[in-house]
Amino acid sequence: MQAIIGHSIAGRQTRGAAQRLADIYNPATGEVAARVALGTAQDVADAVAAAKAAFPAWADTPPLRRARILFKFKELL
Q1: What does the angle CA 61 – CA 65 – CA 70 come to, to the nearest 5 degrees?
Q2: pLDDT at 16
């Protein structure tokens, strides 16, 4: 059984109300490596609301700090 990957909204991991799943393929082998929950309209609305709530604090963050955060994120990827 493959792992099911959910969503991260406002720092919470959730699968949401998604009933539909999509396969994620390993490009080297073509085999299914995991499955991802497809978001519902409510999942999208929740993500948009979380982004709107987070925006004022992010906008007040100095550009140098934002750049460091994004470069750290890039390293993690």
Answers
A1: 105
A2: 64
Closest CA to 47 of 3, 13, 23, 5: 13
Average predicted confidence (pLDDT) for the chain? 91
- Tokens 């396969």 correspond to 23
Parallel, antiparallel or unpaired: strands 32-37 and 3-5: parallel
CA dihedral over 60, 14, 32, 21, signed as positive or negative:
negative
Spatial distance between the Cα atoms of 57 and 31, rounded to a whole number of angstroms: 42
Closest CA to 38 of 71, 5, 75: 5
Predicted confidence (pLDDT) per residue in 39-75, tens digit: 888 889 999 999 999 999 999 999 999 999 999 999 9
In the sheet that holds 3-5, the strands lie side by side as 3-5, 32-37, 21-25
Predicted local distance difference test score (pLDDT) of residue 31 = 95
